[in-house]
């Protein structure tokens, strides 16, 4: 064969061409990842967000309550598959056009060009879209070269050779793209969507977000030390300041707002429409607060409940500056990732704009550069990447309410059972966390006989109140969890351990079991414990 081999001999007909196109599309996908990492410019990001927005509420409820984190991973994988199909179609179009125009140049140049066009249209980033074009181009170029050195593609052996060559090139290009993209993601601030450690990891200062601003100092050392002193030593039990804070967003790919360009607008039914940039907030005196967040979609004994020290400014003065005059007494909060939630103004008035987390700049996955915290309420209204607070004339549905959820109210009381251990004297110990929002936790009771009898568990000392710019600060944190533990002489054989909490108003955690959808799970947590399996 020579470089003048007809196109029919370069690309096998039918399924063979489709296979080569899919291989090129896969390499293009990883080429996009190599160019931008796991960031909004990654071609999968806009597709995944669109799928989340258009997916029926019952499917989302199933994914959250049954599949858990796997549901979002499947949505991301589905978005990736959609992108590969789009790319493959673009390559097939180029090959088909080449049969009529130019049997070699059109597929080699037209395929990558169409892939680039698809990527640029989806992401709005034409320069970074070249990464996808390069990925597809590598596979098509290698396939074309193989056409000059083997049997005709129309023959069975030649067709297989072309497909295997394309697949091999795609595997190599994809592996390289993955490594480059992964390293680029790490260099830009670590895993953007994983849980963040609470040990002062400097990866939180994401240069893609904070590179052009002077980041303030977040003096949370006293708070962190107080939490460490109060934390029980119990293997398998998360400390009072979470080491890996859960992360939930409607989209898998976190946005990367530039702090230098970020602003918060206050709009709608207000006399004034102030706007605040990052420096406006950073120059104010900070408060440092323990605040817990709990996801409305978590299972009863799930692990989407965590506590951190947040540094920032209260929202009440900003609301006063806007002078709201709405009869609705409700607000819509919007974010950089197009997320939005509506809830009562009364809840917002207790809110807090956080710029720091555990003594470091707010990490990307938790809403950098600024996020909203609404104490005592489900996490869905503690909006990350906040950009606007709109005072409404009439009530409207937020994102999750449109999907059938009702998670804008106060959290339910819960005591979780997450750890078992042996004490030094050989007794059995169980432990967990208890949380009731701003109502606080007064007691936790444990039953080791399935709920027939109850005994008080030991609780950690309450976390201290806010420090910094606080007039007459309360002694204790208003919205934080407590650890509990209980040691006992176990009966012979397996037995059922049940736990329940009582909040600061004296109300016992409801026994009635309710699924997470639509308003949050309720019930008493129970667990069968086998003493022989506890080391």
What does this structure look like?
It is a single chain. The chain has 535 residues and is of the alpha+beta class. It folds into 3 domains: 7-187, no CATH class; 202-402, Oxidoreductase, molybdopterin-binding domain (Sulfite Oxidase, Chain A, domain 2); 414-533, Immunoglobulin-like (Sandwich), CATH 2.60.40. Helices cover 34% and strands 19% of the residues. It is built from 14 helices and 20 strands. The protein has helices at residues 7-10, 15-36, 44-54, 57-67, 69-100, 105-123, 130-147, 156-187, 207-210, 221-230, 278-282, 316-322, 345-348, 399-402, and strands at 263-268, 275-277, 287-294, 305-314, 330-335, 340-344, 352-357, 360-361, 371-373, 386-391, 414-415, 419-422, 428-435, 441-447, 455-456, 458-459, 467-468, 482-488, 495-503, 525-529. The strands form 4 sheets. Strands 3, 4, 7, 8, 9 and 17 form a 6-stranded antiparallel sheet that branches. A 5-stranded mixed sheet has the order 2-1-10-5-6. Strands 11, 12, 13, 16 and 18 form a 5-stranded antiparallel sheet that branches. Strand 7 and strand 8 form a beta hairpin. Helix 2 packs parallel to helix 8 (156-187) and helix 5 (69-100) runs antiparallel to helix 6. The radius of gyration is 28 Å and the shape is globular. The model is unreliable at 190-195 and 197-203 (pLDDT under 50). One of its GO terms (biological process) is sulfur compound metabolic process. InterPro entries: Ig_E-set (IPR014756), MoCF_OxRdtse_dimer (IPR005066), OxRdtase_Mopterin-bd_dom (IPR000572), OxRdtase_Mopterin-bd_sf (IPR036374). Keywords: Membrane, Transmembrane, Transmembrane helix.
